[in-house]
Amino acid sequence: MHNKSRLNADMVNPHVRAAEYAVRGELAIKAEDLRDRLEAGEKLPFDHVINANIGNPQQLDQKPLTFFRQVIALTECPDLISEENLPVTRKLFPSDAIERAQGLLKEIGSVGAYSASQGVMGIRKNVAKFLQERDGHPADPADIYLTAGASQGVHTILHILIANSSTGCLIPIPQYPLYTATLAMLNGRAVPYYLDEEKAWSVSMNDMRDGLEKAEAQGTDVRALVVINPGNPTGNCLAVEDMRDVLRFCKEEGLVLLADEVYQTNTFASDRPFVSFKKVYRDMCAEDPSMEGLDMVSFHSTSKGMIGECGRRGGYFELTGFDKDVRDIIYKSVSITLCPPVSGQILVDLMVNPPKEGEESYPLYNKEYSHIYNSLKERSQALLSAFKRMEGVDCQDAQGAMYLFPRLTLPQKALDAAAEAGKTADAFYCLKLLDATGVCMVPGSGFGQKEGTIHLRTTFLAPGTEYAERIVKFHEDFMRKYKD
After folding, report:
1. Is residue 231 left, alpha or beta, with left meaning phi > 0 and alpha meaning psi from -120 to 50?
2. Contacts (Cβ under 8 Å, ≥6 apart) of 151
3. pTM for this structure?
4. Cis omega (within 30 of 0) for bond into 174
């Protein structure tokens, strides 16, 4: 009997093999190995590992918001609010948490049952109400799809848009590698446009147009444009005039705008508040009706901001525009996965409808929310200050999100040592940093960068600010060792 070969890597979908995802790559694997060695009692130059490689707030000790967890606990264990147990539960939980859980369970039924594929209607109505209050323009629950985090929404839309191997999507460089990885898996084309580092990582319309023209000249059918605002990995917030330019460009070129807005509550510069692309677009339509007819998808998530519930996988996207036949295909696509996690949907409801002033849980919620926000702002400034003190390091201000993306100018000896080790210069630096300090960052090459530049991306989620001094000390030693 002849046995056929078992599955091996050469048999796997080549597009999946080609996909890369920097924030979970070599550095993250090595960080876990170092953590295991510390736990085994090995002596290293540091006593703990700091995962500054990924925006995972609660891994880095960000506390969950009490009201959110109370409501989730009650929906997960509905016996707590049964008539029999309610007198005891009222001694343990605030009345508004109990009422919210009761209302959600009335709308949902059981959190263990499938919901509608688009998400629970009552929750989508609350999302629409939130959007209308945020933007000052109408929002329709029919346009809203609840998702397992924003990433699932991005996957869904890109699956719809990428028709064949010649279909492309304009993406910012630097960018979050979700986009390049997903496009690689779909055998689509990533069409880069470079953000302007010298102008606080703002969009360059000339570069965007050049990118489109070059791609079309090479036979690429460019269908969409991605904008991440606030930016990942750059931490920038776009000015409204830049957003208007992007919207005009998409309208002129017939591009679907994918507005990744998951960091919309992470803004730290008073002169650059978050404004949604939908608001700017609707304002433009009111001024000039010829702007009508743009297709746009806006994404949001419960994983970021002051919520930081990454593991619960909650999010949504909102459709603006779109032909009915395309909408039907989008609905069919999400139906194949049955429904997003119901516990994640509940978290979306809490995100868009948190405790309000005058309600029992508001004082604690406001205290916790403000503490997280102020701590993030303080850490961003401490890390930014550290980078600005380091020789050969230039870093733009932290306007938003939870990242900094400093540029490094390294001595030639360091570049030669990296080449000899078979590493890019940024990966070489990050590996040395991890070995010396236990701080795990991500090479800028994992996000894309202009040729000839060296960057790294770090979060500022880790508690405290002392590790910033460890980074400064390492950099001094590194530059001294490799000085030309």
Report:
1. beta
2. 178, 315
3. 0.89
4. yes
